[in-house]
Write a structure and sequence with these properties.
This protein folds into two domains: 4-157, no CATH class; 247-370, Roll (CBS-domain). 57% of the residues lie in helices and 15% in strands. The protein contains eleven helices and ten strands. It has a four-stranded mixed β-sheet. Strand 3 (82-88) and strand 4 (91-96) form a beta hairpin. The chain is elongated, with a radius of gyration of 26 Å. The model has no long low-confidence stretch (mean pLDDT 85). The structure holds zinc ion. Zinc ion is lined by residues 67, 71, 113, 156, 164.
Length: 380
């Protein structure tokens, strides 16, 4: 996830905070200090409400981190490399490289999350009832943490994708039917229905109870879940359709290689307009110097196109590149993460092609129109 702040490493996993999380932290601390604690415990100093609210928000943050670490450690134990954990406004995401290859793996990785939240709830509850805490704010905070972790555990057990419970459901349907696409469709449909239900509940909260912030927050989470479910449905369909397909078979195998001295207007005329391309590689011999895209060219006023060499507007090397034998799904992920439209394909020292987002989409439509069946899906 972009725009995140690095916090450090834990068990070799990078921990980061996305800037949206700061907003969630402030909102939670504020609602605890001004609403939750004063409503339940009377007569504290205002500063006590705030220190308790902030401390509870910090422990909530640690709890979410433990939940994510549990996912990450199980994934790593099953052989999936884990790059990082990022906390953002709605919780946390573990960046696990590659998707689960077997339903059993997905089940373990997903189920351990809610389990760790419920375990944390139990730990806080035992502290609350057994540790003989004397100070009221401390008791209030531990009680809140027991409650919120139980709520998090239960919320995540709801069987809608992409919640943990949705992943558990997906792993079960995947195992039963052998089809990852069908399993994803079912789990994502439940996820979307749940998202819509949350939006409706949020609207009801605002209209019927006048709880504007609480209602908006609920609706916002519903809207996010709904979108995430739809996105994962699409992503899985693409992944399955392209499984085993290599960059080599989708790339443009003879992309034009233009001299850095070529004037911009010639490239616009010959490559963009006549050739229907959106980008050309710029190089000498087969040494890649950069790439010139429509976006690069548009930065230069049109009257200067004829007198300016393309070297002046191109995006220079080092560029993001990809190898010809990488999977298309890996290429797609890389293209999306870096927000690119095309990427040069490099084999060792040589530039062997160019892969564009547009061509991948065209191939996808072609495969759909032809009714090509994806390679047999693995079941475990
Ligand atoms: Zn989780």
């Amino acid at each position: 996830m972009k725009a995140s702040l690095r916090l450090g490493r834990s068990a070799g996993i990078e921990i980061g905070i996305h800037y949206t999380w700061l907003f969630a932290f402030a909102l939670i601390a504020w609602s605890l200090a001004e609403g939750f604690f004063p409503d339940r415990y009377e007569g504290w100093a205002r500063s006590t409400y705030w220190t308790t609210g902030i401390a509870a928000a910090i422990f909530l943050f640690v709890s979410v981190l433990i939940h994510e670490l549990a996912h990450s450690l199980v994934a790593r134990g099953l052989g999936y490399p884990v790059e990082s954990i990022t906390l953002f406004i709605f919780g946390g995401v573990s960046q696990i490289r590659g998707d689960a290859e077997k339903p059993r793996h997905e089940f373990y990785i997903a189920a351990v999350g809610p389990l760790s939240s419920l375990l944390l709830a139990l730990v806080f509850w035992v502290i609350l009832t057994q540790a003989g805490l004397e100070r009221a704010p401390l008791r209030a905070m531990v009680g809140y943490l027991a409650f919120i972790n139980a709520a998090l555990g239960i919320f995540n057990l709801i069987p809608g994708f992409p919640l943990d419970g949705g992943r558990v459901l997906r792993s079960a349907v995947w195992r039963a039917t052998g089809s990852l696409v069908r399993a994803t469709n079912i789990a994502a449909t439940v996820g979307q229905a749940f998202g819509w239900a949350l939006i409706a509940i949020g609207v009801f909260q605002v209209l019927a109870t006048g709880s504007i912030i609480g209602g908006l927050w609920t609706a916002f989470i519903g809207w996010f879940l709904n979108g995430a479910a739809e996105a994962s449905r699409r992503e899985t369909a693409v992944q399955v359709m392209f499984s085993g397909v290599k960059v080599r078979s989708v790339m443009d195998q003879s992309p034009p290689f233009v001299s850095p001295n070529a004037p911009v207007d010639g490239i616009v005329r010959d490559q963009f307009l006549a050739g229907g391309r959106r980008a050309v590689l710029i190089g000498e011999g087969d040494r890649l110097l950069g790439i010139a895209t429509i976006t690069d060219v548009r930065k230069l006023p049109q009257e200067k196109w004829s007198e300016t060499p393309v070297a002046a507007v191109m995006t220079r090397s080092p560029l993001k590149t990809i190898g010809p034998d990488e999977d298309i799904t890996a290429a797609l992920r890389m293209i999306a993460e870096n927000d690119l439209n095309q990427v040069p394909v490099i084999d060792g020292e040589h530039t062997v092609g160019m892969l564009s987002r547009a061509e991948i989409v065209r191939q996808m439509q072609l495969r759909q129109t032809l009714g090509l069946r994806p390679p047999a899906e693995k079941a475990g």
